[in-house]
Amino acid sequence: MSAVLSTESLRKCYPEFTLNDVSLEVAAGNILGIIGPNGAGKTTLVKLIMNQIKRDGGSVRVFGLDYETSEKEIKNRIGYVGEEQHFYRKRTVAWTGRFVGRFFKEWDQDRFDSLLEEFRISQSKKTGQLSKGMKTKLALAIALSHGAELLILDEPTSGLDPIVRREILNRLQDVAIDEDKTVVLSSHISDDLSRIADHLAFMNDGEIILRGEKDELLSQWRRIHFREGALSESGRGALEAVRTQEFSNVGICRDYPRFQAAMSGGVARGDVRPEPMSLDDILLFLVNGE
């Protein structure tokens, strides 16, 4: 399956921060979640992918095209939603749609009107009167109304209430499944990515520190509680960050199926107890070693 988006050895240097050697690929119809703490480099990566800032090294290709020769075509095929939405505050929602629609070859006014109705956004309301959640939904309606094949969203649900967050996530999942859209979603909210992402890229300090298929990662990572003497030397050696506690020990396992096969007897006796790890758990371990 060909990559809709690919970066290779992408680099951006600031005085106090460097995005370093980021390479990734996103196949058509997939949802990639980029997860990391604030300051990890997620927004810098998104801006580089959007060609909003100049890269210091590496390459970005979208639909197999390069920004240097095909920027207009690429951006006609991308829908973008950022954390903060910037509209003309004194203009109505209807005016905003007409204005933005002039910049896209495939603008679909009927779909825009339909999405506004679905999202319960009044066309006569001025954008400055919209809540943050409504502005985000308006930005998403615009992104979905010009035939975008790739949706790129940078912290779109930050600061939104759970109902609006769920509505936005459900719509993103629907377009990926029903319309074969490709989605790149950057967020520090792990629940959002756990809900809809197919693949994950964990970021910290400007680097991708772990990536893979979401369900596979969640099946591989476990926190292992074990009684002293229950593990063989090789079994204990497969664990990281082992801590000795009063009644049992605990360590982190990155390849649980392999560990489980080797320790099935111990698991059956209850000497070894595996505990699933959430995306937050994995991130905390990768960033803080705990």
What does this entry look like structurally?
The protein is of the alpha/beta class and 290 residues long. The chain has two domains: 213 residues, P-loop containing nucleotide triphosphate hydrolases (Rossmann fold, 3-Layer(aba) Sandwich), CATH 3.40.50.300; 68 residues. The protein has twelve helices and 14 strands. Strands 6-7-8-3-9-10 form a six-stranded mixed beta sheet, sandwiched between helices. The chain has a four-stranded antiparallel beta sheet with strand order 2-1-4-5. Helix 6 links the parallel strand 7 and strand 8. Helix 4 packs antiparallel against helix 5. It is elongated and about 70 Å long. The mean pLDDT is 92.
Strand content: 25-35%
Overall tally of domains? 2
Helix content: 25-40%
Q: Let me know the largest β-sheet.
A: 6 strands, mixed
Strand order of the largest sheet: 6-7-8-3-9-10
The arrangement of helices and strands along the chain is EEEHEEHEHHHEHEHEEHEHEEHHEH
Low-confidence segments = none
What is the number of strand segments? 14
What would CATH call the architecture of the largest domain?
Answer: 3-Layer(aba) Sandwich
The helix-and-strand class reads alpha/beta
The CATH C-level name of the largest domain is Alpha Beta
Question: For the terminal residues, how far apart are their CA atoms?
Answer: 37 Å
What is the overall number of helices? 12
